[in-house]
Amino acid sequence: MRTQRRQNKIEDSDKTDRWVVSYADFITLLFAFFVVMYAMSSVNEGKYRVLADNMLNAFNTPPKSDKPIQIGQESPQPSMQKPEAAEKNVALLPKQNVDPLQLARIAEDVRKAMQPLIDSNMIKVRDDRLWVEVEVNTELLFTSGSADLVTKANPVLIKLAGVLSPLSNHIDVEGHTDNLPIKTSTYPSNWELSAARAASVVHLFMQNGIDPDRLAAIGYGEYRPIADNTTAEGRR
What is the value of pTM for the model shown? Predict the structure, then answer.
């Protein structure tokens, strides 16, 4: 009888102590859970500091060049709006504190050099106290669907480059197209065609003495027309 009671006591003790194992497993899992949560919420301070420094430098760094003043396609303003550009514009961007008289002289020099083409309505020259615009009819420069300058365009643009090369003004060359769709391996759309046309003129200017730092090639595609594209005359 005494031996039997001892065995019962040992078995009862084993049954009551099993909760300790379960409790220990629970505490271990809870600890692991909080470790994972902490790791997910912690911030890499080094990467955060690098990002913050780069953002600060980006906003505080002054521009490397003068702020562009759109010539030929002046940015829309509430109080005024310029006519849209033709298929090819050469825009002269003045530096800061530009003398309006200097721009007037530039416009006059361009008019003198281009007078026969102005008289035949192939070139238009516009200016005010902030900009000079030279609008060149695409018929004088390119065939339809092409960005290769035609032979008769070279002497015209070379003469224009001779007028512009001694100056310090920035020059935006703006390429345009009509609204006839194009989809070739070279020009998937009119965007690529207009940009390629502007680049063709930029390359010619570079080859004729104009500093490439002064030049920019801009493509507007079909989206800034100055005439109705429903007629052949308007598209020209």
Answer: 0.59
